[in-house]
Amino acid sequence: MRSKGQRGSTEVEAVSRALFARVSKRKDQIILPLNASAAAGEVHKPAVYCVHSITGAGGSDFLPLARRLSEDVRVFGVQAPSAQMADPAFGASLASLAGVYATAIAEAPPPAALVLAGWSAGAAIALEIAHQLRARGREVALVVAFDGAPENPRAGWRRWDPRYVVAVLARLPGWWRDTRSMEPRFRTTAAGRLRSVLARLRRAALLQGPEPVGLRGVPDLERYPLAQRQFMTRLSEALRVYRPRPWSGPVLVYEARITPATRLPQYLARWRTAAPQAKGVKLDGNHYTIMREPRVAALGADLRARILRLQRATAAS
After folding, report:
1. Residue-wise pLDDT tens digits, 221-240
2. Strands 74-78 and 31-33
3. CA atoms within 13 Å, Cβ hemisphere of 179
């Protein structure tokens, strides 16, 4: 028999999923309320806007996190509207894409504390949205990155640095074990994981470039509709050429302890080229599992505590 707490969590998750299913059907929808307090418009509560990854889907990816943040925090997903994905200009520039999202966010009444968060490719988009909201006079209390950062090949250790090589090799056993806990749509067999490692090593040996940023690690790209694949490709190139302006506000970077097999992302080092004040938090899991149950519990608990502290500090000032 389930405990009262388990039943309560299940009920909250069911409400969140039903809410998301109802509001995400519109093809022009950008802002998706992901919990009841977001849908109710309770502006006295802090608001977290979670920006989509390379796929453009800003709802379902964040439902587990929304449940863990509880009703004390309003949680919204920021998605790329499917009605605009076929437009060859949409997503071709990070500044223009962030401008669309900043306009949608600015239309809502200012919350008690505004937090912009992004997972993977969404981290860089969230930073650009923060710049554009600040230019419009909106105060951004915190920028949060979930295992993502603006591209900067000069940040951190270089690939030829012995420390880089040692760090990658030290993480291989954990990566091998951890990928088995991923969702079925991301999971691969042992043979598949080995082929992936060998292919990446071969590219490195031939001095070929890595996969485009953002599309790196996306399995079975063909399963996405054509317009969405085209949007993902445009956005990948826009992320590659984007160079962020310096950001003086608070930045929090969550990094997964388990990194890709042959690459060290060094997200915090990359953030500190634009925001030297950025702080980092390590999480157990990999790029995907930190956003899923049960590992999202640690992320949700830490972020919720920080946001509520921000709210109290804002109210006291």
Report:
1. 778 899 999 999 999 999 99
2. antiparallel
3. 21
Strands 47-51, 31-33: pairing is unpaired
Q: Where are the alpha helices (DSSP H) in the chain?
A: 4-23, 36-40, 63-69, 94-106, 122-135, 162-178, 190-205, 226-241, 267-271, 296-316
Give me the pLDDT at residue 192, please.
60
CATH classification (class only), 4-316? alpha beta
User: What is the pLDDT, as a whole number, of residue 120?
Assistant: 95
Whose tokens are 């909201």? That residue is 133
How does DSSP classify residue 215?
Answer: T
pLDDT digits (tens, 9 = 90+) for 264-310: 789 999 999 999 999 999 999 999 999 999 999 999 999 999 999 99
> What are 205's two structure tokens?
């040996």
Burial code of 173-194, b = ≥16 C-beta within 10 A, e = fewer? eebeebbebbeeebeeeeeebe
CB 119 within 8 A of CB 291: yes
256: which residues sit within 8 A by CB, 6+ positions away? 147, 282, 283, 284, 285, 286, 287, 289, 290
pTM for the model stands at 0.82
For residues 55 and 9, what is the distance between their CA atoms, to the nearest angstrom? 28
